[in-house]
Amino acid sequence: MDIEKRISDYIDALNEEREPEEKEEASPDLERLFKTIRLVRTLKEPAMPDPAYPQRLVKIVAGRLNGLQPGSCRSAKTGKEKAAPRRFGRRFWTPAAALAACLLLGFLLVTRAGLFKGDTVYAMEKAVARLAGYQGVLEIRSENAAGEVWLNCRVEIWSDSERYAVRQEDGTLTVNNGERKWQLSPQSKTVTVQPLLPDSMGFDLRDEAARARQYPHTIAGVDTVADRKATKLEITPPGGLAYYLWIDAETNLPVQLQTAMHNALQTTYTFVSFEPNATVDPRLFVYEVPEGYTVVESDPGVLVATVEEAAAISGLAPLLPREAPQRILAFPDRIVMDYGDTTIVELKATGVFEPEATAALGSAAGGPLEVCWERLRWRQEGLEIAVEGPQRLELARQLTADLTLPDPDADLTGKARVKVPVDYELARANQQQVDGGSSPWQLDPLQVALTFVNLLVTPEGITGEPQIAMTSFSPVANNGVEAVVAVDAGPVQYVYLKRLIRQDESGIWSVVGYDPR
User: Fold this and answer.
1) C or N terminus of the chain, fewer CB within 10 Å?
2) Would strands 190-194 and 217-225 be described as parallel, antiparallel, or unpaired?
């Protein structure tokens, strides 16, 4: 096994509070490295005392690997220690080799969320990855700007791998067992069969762990959540308002989420009880209609065994990737291929293909490709295809060979003939305004271009219908960071826009240039 990987796995095991498993015998020199890692791991204070500490540590460990102790051997001429090569097993460790090993060790310790830095988010990510299921009670509370707090609802949740059940306070139970989804309502005595499509339960532990890893975060203190000690993280999306996530100190799992104050309202999700990897009664996921209940179908689709069955039910001629799906659901007008964390939805293409206004644009099957969040969407052979999830790119390329993603580094705005000065403070304020639920039109480059052009035509302001209508605006290019919009009427031919504050689908657009007609 590669030495670096063995050291890396050893550190991961210690970070996860378990005994490292060695599949092959370690050489004496590697055993010394493992021993050093353990010694460093026991340090109580993770912060380094001063900037020179790493160099001192490398020197000490290098000396120990070469068998030197302070005052053990000194040169007669210089009075300095001499480090003669010392044999370990069948290998000689020279000072250069020892130093290289120490540098490798130091790099791994510091960069792998390692022993010198207690990385709460790294631990959370690992804990969430190991989470098979859980049982808990989730409270959802709201607070306004005046400090008034009220309870929205309290639900009980059972999660078992891909299966889950949620019971509301009125007894309404929603169950998804991976093959069927239904909602049992004791008040109306109905069982509503719902479409079996990917969905979320709201406070999604995996989503929150991923966001915390992606965005800048700091430890804001230690609190008690539902009688459990928890680390409070402040997470700051670029250009947005900070929100808070609490990580249980014992399980390293998220137990509370508090959103930013949007429109003078803030929401807090709290697991008042939470049992990770709990044993869930399998009978909970068995579809049964209680006596006296009425079944209400809500286009649930049909789980089919073959593509031929799916084609017969949907009336479509589906396109299939090389990789077989875990299951196929057929509806009268569409087909859903389920790959666990990723889905492919195919339906008949009708009308004009219109990408989402906030989406970046690529190309696929000779036409436009919509790239929006974790979804790719395009048209091919009379079908509209959407692939959503972590495997979207791999599966989409199995369907179409000429898929091209937008290049975020392409300079789309550099050729603007007239540059528009940018007010970054105003852009930040607008971004926070949109994050709070106001002025969502700033997420649409066509709307931003329309406003800009019409203010050039009527600088006193826009009243009533704009003089240059929306039908005159059309997207030319969009790489997710920069965009170009064509205008077929009025004094402007092209408008150039850029996401200045946040370069994802939640970022607002600002005009940075234009071409006069």
Assistant:
1) N
2) unpaired
